[in-house]
Amino acid sequence: MSISLDDITAVILAGGMGSRMGGIDKGLRNFKQAPLALHALMRLSSQVGSTMINANRNIGVYEGFGIPVICDQQADFAGPLAGMQAALNEATVPFLVTVPCDVPLFPLDLVARLSEPFLKDPTLMLTVAATGGRHQPVFCMMRSEVLPGMEEFLRKGGRKIDAWYSNIPHAAVDFEDEAAFHNVNTLEELRALEQKA
């Protein structure tokens, strides 16, 4: 038994300011001759039924990827949780998977493994990837019903993903390869990861 891919959509979160990378749009920085966000899209495309990108600038460039582009409903680059909110408002299927744009080598079985706990526990609202006992909160899978609680959390000024989901039924899914979740925050880190990959 498994969750149908048609019941899962994914959002690539590329709506940040890229402040640690000099304010540039991180999702459009090249990694091995292709934008980081495009790497995420290529890794996700076979894992879910549909995909979208959350971006708050360079919309036309992202539209060139051939999938829907959605913007935050919150002002002032409110963080990845605002991107998740925007995606949930657009989603028409039961499950949403979220990944950041700056982790080009995340696992190719990410969605399958995040899906498994939902099959065993119908009360679960969210699963989150974990490595070495530490949650990777931007890599998660959630039921669409979490939207009202998320919006209430954002209205009250909440921004941290793990603080939000700590109040709903959730489960961590352990992944052994910690390097697969390595994100790039600087141009130096980007070049170093290119050398290793």
From TrEMBL:
Family annotation (SUPFAM superfamilies): Nucleotide-diphospho-sugar transferases (SSF53448)
Q: Which reaction does it catalyse?
A: Mo-molybdopterin + GTP + H(+) = Mo-molybdopterin guanine dinucleotide + diphosphate
Query: Into which EC class is this enzyme placed?
Result: transferase
Q: Which cofactor does it need?
A: Mg(2+)
The name under which this protein is listed is: Molybdenum cofactor guanylyltransferase
UniProt binding sites for GTP: L13, A14, G15, K26, N54, D72, D102
Its biological purpose is as follows:
Transfers a GMP moiety from GTP to Mo-molybdopterin (Mo-MPT) cofactor (Moco or molybdenum cofactor) to form Mo-molybdopterin guanine dinucleotide (Mo-MGD) cofactor.
- What region holds the MobA-like NTP transferase domain? 10-163
Quote the subcellular location field of this record.
Cytoplasm
Assembly and oligomerization: Monomer.
Pfam families recorded: NTP_transf_3
Q: Which UniProt keywords apply?
A: Cytoplasm, GTP-binding, Magnesium, Metal-binding, Molybdenum cofactor biosynthesis, Nucleotide-binding, Nucleotidyltransferase, Transferase
Species whose genome carries this gene: Limnobacter thiooxidans
Gene transcribed to yield this protein: mobA
Cellular component terms, GO, for this chain's entry? cytoplasm
Where along this sequence does the record place binding of Mg(2+)? Answer: D102
